[in-house]
Amino acid sequence: MNQVNKYIFITLLIIFPFTSSAQNEQNVKLAFDEFLKMVKQYHPIAKQADFLVSNAKANKLTSKGGVDPKIFYDFQNKYYDSKSYYQLSNGGLQIPTWYGIDFKVGLENNFGQFVNPQNVTANQGLSYAQISLPLLQGLLIDERRATLKKAMLFDKMSLFDKTIMLNDLIYQAGKSYWDWQLAYANLQVFQSALNIAQQRFNAVKRTVVLGDRPAIDTVESYIQLQERLMSVQQSQVDFKEKTLWLSNYMWLDNNIPIELTEKSIPEKFSISLEQKKILLTFLMNTDSLIDNHPEIKVYEFKRKQNEIDFQLKKDKLKPTLNIQYNPLGQSTNLNWLSLNNYKWGFGLGFPLLLRKERGEVKMAKIKIDNIVSEMANKKNILINKVKLKQFELENYKNQYTIYTKTVDSYEQLWLSEKQLFDTGESSLFMINSREMSYINAQLKLNDMYTKNKKAIIEVLYALGQIENLAL
Fold it and tell me: What letters, b where the CB count within 10 A reaches 16 and e where it falls short, cover 273-295?
């Protein structure tokens, strides 16, 4: 719904309660596809789904901060009892990398009466570079790389989490719309039945006055009229309840809720040719759609994230061996490649029993196996659910086709009985019985309408493609 149509629609909803009685006869039709588009675009849960993606991107940006270059500077000065003990300064640039190698360049300048001899530098200061490299543990993966990899997966997974949230929202909104449509269709049936009962009551009163019918017939026709009136009132309550419930899904920009008025009505049962093509295409590609179902894709990303954790835990089984090499030189002579000026060292460590590390590896493997099992079970459930919903859809379609003819037959019986009643050859009891059978048949057909509509939603929801209804 474009901006112009949206505001026209909202204006109609607002002004209708205040228009003249002639205008109040008009209704505002809320089409199913336009309703779903509004839900998808403006409902707070739809916006929350967007927040999932935004949060994932922010999390990825945070994780990338682990390899951000950093400027550093440390300064210490001790002055006591009129003596300058020392002045130490060290500043430069530190560059961590994706591959676990860290680079650092800097300038160190230390002087004073009591500076530690190993920290003494020339008057111009001491320039240095540092290369830090893990050779065993941390060579292929470390906490920094694992966090960033998982954040990148989380960013992709958030798109499927968003789809799941939208699918759930559209699924519930779609069912509520067709419940609303059913309440409206039933109200129409009862209102029509009330009009017929009113006309009959007036006709019976005239025939009683003329002496063609006994006076007791007015009592029976009046009872029928009252019962129909009660049915209309109850259906009005039901329609109002469904209207208010549907209003829960109606929103505008800036979290502004919309309340539908009693003049808002649903569309009649229909499904566009394009929707039929979409549904047929989906049903022909069930296996592929199940493999790419958003819930299955979320499981896959969770498995990949846990595999990263597993790799990290396995890497902890290796000894730690980190080497550092620092070329040195005066600040006025940056000849760092000289073999005569350098500092280097290494650190080695290895737990003897590795109980903590082996336990963490086992727990990480169990998590992966558990996710794989859950994913297989979920896929099987989805496949069977699609088959069931597809069967229900076909069954409801057949039932509707068959029962449409049944309703026509009930109508013919009622019309035939009406002709007999109008000619005085039938009783109020018989015409009321025929009418009630016809009314109940109409109500049952309305219910089958709703089952067909909901069955389409159920199939697309099981396939994870219900969002396509709100294109």
Answer: eebeebbeebeeebeebbeebbb
| Structural domain spans, the chain | 3-63+145-308+363-470, 71-137+321-349
Query: Which pTM does this prediction carry?
Result: 0.80
Could you tell me which residues are beta bridge partners of residue 343?
A: 326
* pLDDT at residue 269 in the model: 62
Q: Is the pLDDT of residue 414 over 50?
A: yes
How is domain 3-63+145-308+363-470 classified at the architecture level of CATH? Answer: Up-down Bundle (1.20)
Taking all residues of the chain, what is their mean pLDDT, rounded to a whole number? Answer: 84
Tokens 């009330």, residue? 194
Residue-wise burial string across 342-377, b where 16 or more C-beta atoms lie within 10 A, e elsewhere: eeeeeeeeeeeeeeebeebbeebbebbeebeeebee
The residue among 301, 10, 303 whose CA lies nearest residue 156 is 301
Greatest mean pLDDT range, 104-108, 147-151, 231-235, 448-452: 231-235
Q: Which two tokens stand for residue 300?
A: 């896959």
pLDDT at 439 exceeding the cut of 90: yes
Q: Is the pLDDT of residue 444 over 90?
A: yes
C-alpha dihedral (101, 105, 106, 108), degrees to nearest 10: 70
Alpha-carbon gap, residue 241 to 247, rounded angstroms: 10
Residues 398, 404, 407, 409, Cα dihedral to 10°:
-100
